[in-house]
Every structure is written in structure tokens, then in C-alpha cells.
Design a protein that fits this description.
It comes from Delftia lacustris. This protein is an alpha/beta fold. The chain has two domains: 40-133 and 261-329, D-Maltodextrin-Binding Protein, domain 2; 135-257, Periplasmic binding protein-like II (D-Maltodextrin-Binding Protein, domain 2, 3-Layer(aba) Sandwich). It contains eleven helices and eleven strands. The chain has a six-stranded mixed beta sheet, with helices on both faces. Strands 7-6-8-5-9 form a five-stranded mixed beta sheet, sandwiched between helices.
């Protein structure tokens, strides 16, 4: 028999082709695996019991009810949201690790730290805005001012600077009051705390004069007569506190005072577009549920539910706005 000198190369080619077809079949099979097919992890940069944790758990429970996919809330507090962001950044880009965070990890931290271990834009894929949270300028009930105009006059007269409790350096409460002081030309002595609860305790105890408060805190304490509310951020009044005017209607045009801090969802960079869109759909469907919308509204949150592209544009705008504002009010990255 005449030897076939092409037999071995042909066999090798056949084996390679078979392997490629097998691999392609596996990839195709994997691509048709429905999402979600296993538990989804919502990574939250704050301890259990806080506002963001509450939002994540309400949404997770509704997503589980609607899709039958289990959602696990993984609380990873500390380092201004860096620990949680780093955890998700290093996770597989498969849609099963989702960062549920506020503006601090992806906007404020850029003005606070010279070197972040992650890039908020390059290392993450925006999934969408979830909700916004109003903040109200309040004072201890014993303080003389009863309106924002009176507050500004009082602050200008205090040459030593009014004491103002913040939720921490570089947080929205810090940036907002410093912005107001810059606009109205009064000195502010900011006292940073670790979150809102200790601020409220010292404000009620008379150790602080003024602060920014969440809606639930402000409503509860003003109803008791323990606090006075002067103005709320955002472009419209709150349904829960309709008598409190907005900064905007009082003539303030600064974007910091006319926006409300938001909560958003992010997946690791490289997550397939179809998976990102599916997560977005799960979140938006949950936010549309009347019981979820009511649960959030009753706590002072305003459901949003934007698309990934809409949030990507919003994120770019806020990074540009807040990095400039933080520099203007004297916050320097360390």
C-alpha cells in the first residue's frame, strides 16, 4: 500500500477541528444558561441596619419573589466604601456579585484619596440608579433661627464659625454645608462623625448647633419639637415634610444643594451586556412593585430605576461636579 504522507496532518487537523467544535458547543451551552441560575450577592459598604442595607434587602427580597433567584446581602463596611468596592472589582464578571453603594465610593472618594485601589469608571459597569435620598438642614430646637434666612444671618454673626456635625469628612453633609457657607459667606466649624446616628445624639443633646439630617430623622424630631428644619435639597418638596422649602425655591442654584445623593448598582467591568441588562431589569421590576415603592418612600427614599447608560452619564456629571466642588471648599485628597 502506498503510504499517505498527508494522513497524520489530516488527523491532527481533524482533532483540532473536533476540539474547537466541542469548545464552541460548550460556550454556546453556557451562553444559554438562564440568568440568574444561582444566588446573587449584593455587596453593601455599610453595616446591617443602615439606610443602604435596608434598600438592598427590600430589593433583594422582591427580586427573589419575582425571579425565584436568591439574593444574599453581603455587608462589607469600612474605609469609605473601598473594601466593598474592591471586593466586587475582584469578583468574576458574571453578574453574581453586584455592588449596591452610594455616591461616596464612586464620586466622593476621588476627591478624598490621592490613590484609590480601583478606578470607579474603568473597573465597574454601571447597572443603574436605584433611589435618591433627601437631606434636610436642621438645627437644635433651642437655636434662635426658624428659617434659612435667619440661619444664614445667625451664621454670619458668629465670627467663630457655627458648629456643624457631618456624617464624616467628604460626605454629602460635609460638602453641602461647606458649599452653603461659601455661597453665603459664613464660617463653618465642621465636626465629623462616623455616620448620622452620633450626629443626631449630639445635636439633640446640645453639643452641636446644626446638621444635615435624613428625612426620617428630621421628620421624627421636628414633629417632637426637638429640631427645626430650614431647607431640603433637591428640586421639589418632600411629601413627608411638605412645609419645608427647597434650597432651589429659596434662590439657590448650586448643583450640590439642588441634587439628592443617590444609591446605585455596579457590576465588575467585563460583565456581559446581556447580563447587565438582566440585572437592571430585575432591579427596575422590583422598584415598580407598589409595596417596594411604598417601603422606600415611607423611609424618605425616592425610587428611580434608570438604565445603565443613563447612570453612566449621571456618574460622569457628578464626578466632574463634586471633584471641583470638593477642591473649591478646601478638601484635599490624602
Amino acid at each position: 500500500m502506498t503510504p499517505d504522507f498527508h494522513e497524520k496532518p489530516f488527523r491532527r487537523a481533524l482533532l483540532v477541528a473536533s476540539a474547537l467544535l466541542c469548545a464552541a458547543g460548550q460556550v454556546q451551552a453556557q451562553s444559554h444558561v438562564p440568568y440568574p441560575s444561582k444566588p446573587i450577592r449584593f455587596v453593601v459598604p455599610f453595616a446591617a441596619g443602615g439606610a443602604l442595607d435596608y434598600v438592598a434587602r427590600v430589593l433583594g427580597a422582591e427580586i427573589t419573589r419575582q425571579s425565584r433567584a436568591q439574593v444574599i446581602v453581603d455587608n462589607r463596611p469600612g474605609a469609605s466604601g473601598i473594601l466593598a468596592a474592591e471586593n466586587v472589582r475582584g469578583s468574576a464578571p458574571d453578574g453574581y456579585s453586584v455592588l449596591i453603594t452610594n455616591m461616596e465610593s464612586h464620586v466622593n472618594n476621588l476627591g478624598l484619596f490621592k490613590s484609590l485601589p480601583y478606578d470607579p469608571v474603568r473597573d465597574f459597569q454601571p447597572v443603574g440608579l436605584i433611589a435618591s435620598a433627601a437631606a434636610i438642614l436642621v438645627g437644635n430646637a433651642a437655636m434662635p433661627p426658624s428659617s434659612l434666612a435667619q440661619f444664614v444671618a445667625y451664621a454670619r454673626a458668629d465670627k467663630g464659625g457655627v458648629s456643624f456635625g457631618t456624617w464624616g469628612n467628604g460626605t454629602y453633609s460635609h460638602i453641602a454645608i461647606a458649599t452653603l457657607g461659601r455661597i453665603d459667606r459664613f464660617a463653618v466649624v465642621t465636626v465629623p462623625y462616623k455616620g448620622e446616628s452620633p450626629v443626631v445624639q449630639d445635636l439633640l443633646g446640645g453639643n452641636l448647633s446644626f446638621a444635615m439630617a435624613s428625612v426620617l430623622v428630621a421628620k421624627a424630631q421636628t414633629d417632637k419639637g426637638a429640631m427645626k428644619a430650614y431647607a431640603v435639597n433637591g428640586d421639589r418638596r418632600l411629601a413627608l415634610m411638605p412645609t419645608v422649602p427647597t434650597f432651589k425655591e429659596l434662590g439657590y442654584t448650586d448643583p450640590v444643594l439642588n441634587m439628592r445623593p443617590w444609591f446605585a448598582a455596579y457590576a465588575p467591568a467585563g460583565t456581559p451586556k446581556a447580563v447587565v441588562e438582566r440585572i437592571n431589569t430585575l432591579l427596575r421590576d422590583a422598584l415598580r412593585d407598589p409595596s417596594v415603592a411604598s417601603s422606600l418612600s415611607d423611609k424618605g427614599f425616592e425610587p428611580i430605576g434608570s438604565s445603565p447608560a443613563e447612570h453612566q452619564r449621571e456618574l460622569a456629571r457628578q464626578i466632574q461636579t463634586f471633584t471641583k466642588v470638593m477642591h473649591d471648599i478646601g478638601i484635599r485628597p490624602e
